[in-house]
Amino acid sequence: MTNTQHLxxxxxxxxxxxxxxxxxxxxxxxxxxxxxxxxxxxNIRRSGAIAMGMDGVNTAVIPGNSTPEQYVREITIANDGIxxxxxxxxxxxxGYEVIQELDSWGVKFQKDTYGNYDLKQVHRVGKYVLxxxxxxxxxxxxxxxxxxxxxxxxxRVMATRVIVKDGRAIGAVGFDVRNGDFVVIQAKAVVLCTGxxxxxxxxxxxxxxxxxxxxxxxxxxxxxxxxxxxELTNIECFQINPLIKDYNGPACAYVxxxxxxxxxxxxxxxxxxxxxxxxxxxxxxxxxxNSGKGPIQLKMTHLDEDTIAEIETILWSNERPSxxxxxxxxxxxxxxxxxxxxxxxxxxxxxxxxxxxWVNEKAETTIPGLYAAGDMASVPHNYMIGxxxxxxxxxxxxxxxxxxxxxxxPDTDWLAAEKERIYKPMQNPDGVPHTQVEYKLRRIVNDYxxxxxxxxxxxxxxxxxxxxHDTLDLxxxxxxxxxxxxxxxxxxxxxxxxxxxxxxxRKESRWGLYHYRIDYPEKNNEEWFCHVNLKKENDNMTLFxxxxxxxxxxxxxxxxxxxxxxxx
Amino acid sequence: MALTNQRVDVPVxxxxxxxLEKCHxxxxxxxxxxxxxxxxxxxxxxxxxxxxxxxPCEKECPxxxxxxxxxxxxx
Lengths: 568, 75
Ligand SMILES: Cc1cc2nc3c(=O)[nH]c(=O)nc-3n(C[C@H](O)[C@H](O)[C@H](O)COP(=O)(O)OP(=O)(O)OC[C@H]3O[C@@H](n4cnc5c(N)ncnc54)[C@H](O)[C@@H]3O)c2cc1C
Ligand code: SF4
Ligand code: SF4
Known about the structure:
The complex is a heterodimer.
Chain A: E1 4-8, E2 11-14, H1 18-30, E3 36-39, E4 56-57, H2 68-78, H3 85-104, E5 130-131, H4 138-148, E6 152-154, E7 157-165, E8 168-176, E9 182-186, E10 189-192, H5 220-228, E11 232-233, E12 242-244, H6 253-256, E13 262-264, H7 279-290, E14 296-299, H8 305-315, H9 323-329, E15 339-343, E16 356-358, E17 370-372, E18 377-378, H10 383-402, H11 412-427, H12 434-449, H13 455-472, H14 480-505, H15 525-528, E19 530-537, E20 540-547
Parallel strand pairs in A: 1-9, 2-3, 2-10, 3-6, 10-17, 16-18
Antiparallel strand pairs in A: 4-5, 7-8, 8-9, 11-16, 11-19, 12-15, 13-14, 14-15, 19-20
Chain B: E1 12-14, H1 25-29, E2 35-37, E3 44-46, H2 56-60, E4 66-68
Bound molecules: flavin-adenine dinucleotide and iron/sulfur cluster (2 copies).
């Protein structure tokens, strides 16, 4: 018999990563008397994208270096005009305060000899990259602040659905991934911060967890928001990154390029003049590889010994420290070898591109009482600081919203049905292992959705994803850990269907390689200067156009985000 | 359905002579929850081959008992 745990809180934060820990802290700061609970699938001390810290802040708007308006202009052009500028403006406006607060908690950012933040230029225009050579304990510092602010934490519980009643979010359900308990949490507001969908495409290595994103982030929040009835947006604007081949992690050009490293083809020639990751950059990488000038590499061999040693110190202690042993085991070295790069499999992540749950500048989704922040919330190119800023907005605004709101009792039939859905694989311990079911699903994603996109292929994909419900029913789990992986495969399937439908719907090409359609190769602003949103309506996935919100910063949209090097 | 147990090379190796029976540090921090204690020996081991080669387990081990290798398919 499965045990059931009932929990109650004012604000529930699902996912205690970058955005989630900040949301909980800010909710508590807004009202220390109210209860805040973080529900975390792993352990907040070392979970999510920043489990081992970060090399640097990618989008720091620091007075004297850039302004929020310049930042909005840069992201507007990088994201081909499709964005809610008011939301992006928040990251530009509040990022500095976030950095100062993190600094006061003991997070170390690079400073020059005068004690000023030492920003680097990686973007086309403007300095936004702030190195964090000692960033590895970021998550431990955040976990300490969560405790200090007296927010509660329940680790090792995976959420599976948001509970909705009378049109508003009233809690979440999930299960303990160690003892298998069914967990029901009643809340007055729910903040989803579960990160990217990092397990959508299959890495070329064939290893299911050899992903760029932390593989715990399987698109859980995308799927949960969808089933709650919230709108999602820009899903067709995939996440595709230039990564270390096989290792499938960042090389990392943002660290190395301010030191003089650059992306080059096999002959050592530059073919992009800007290493900032964008769909336009990825399209140039794709063209270079397909022109026979590959493999491509991050080139550092021309740098002097001291510089290389400094780059190594940063890259090998933060973010993805296992880069060191990866290179060493192959007998490769930045002094003698370029770092071979490849094009990653696809994912969904607004931290890097734009796909996510639709949110406004207050981190509100389209469902009252439901907030979203971080990689799963669509605020284009938001990265780590954007996750902190939107975590802060979500926490503060959710706390304001719960004032005067009462808990609602979840519907018992609905709870029973969800419980049955979750535990089904446990009834069938000899069913098909999640590994095989997941491998096949993600292989189909690669075969039919990896750009360049083609209508016929995507039609096949969509059909396969719809029919995959039957395959999911074959899955078996022998313990709660395997059950967690099974439920993740459900989330991945939902994301795959969204990715196929949204890509088919937008009949033009945009965002470079992210949405490059062979049959509609041109950008068509007349018909498609809009968001493509989707939501669940009467159990169907419905797609529709949503107008781009009025701009608050003037941008010349004729300006292309052109990163191509013409003479080489 | 018929199932088979396949041999796999797992990325995480624990030096049992160094692993402390009362300690759970690596098990608590692993974001993928793939490490457990062998109930018979009290030593940690990798039960599920689902590793992000992220290293918190290795960094937080008080006795340096853990070695994380790059998973074989990527190495
Ligand atoms: C390798 C890598 C390098 C990067 N480098 C940089 C950089 O140098 N600079 C920069 O600015 N940005 C960088 N980024 C981006 C930045 O790290 C992310 O945008 C940001 O950390 C995302 O925060 P988040 O809160 O959305 O996700 P995360 O911090 O990943 O948090 C998500 C949390 O949700 C939990 N969770 C997931 N599903 C569930 C569920 N069902 N139930 C309960 N909990 C759940 C996870 O365990 C995790 O704790 C990088 C990202 C990666 C992956
Ligand atoms: S390297 Fe990371 S994922 Fe692998 S066992 Fe250690 S903590 Fe877990
Ligand atoms: S952290 Fe080290 S000592 Fe502790 S259980 Fe793990 S391997 Fe053993």
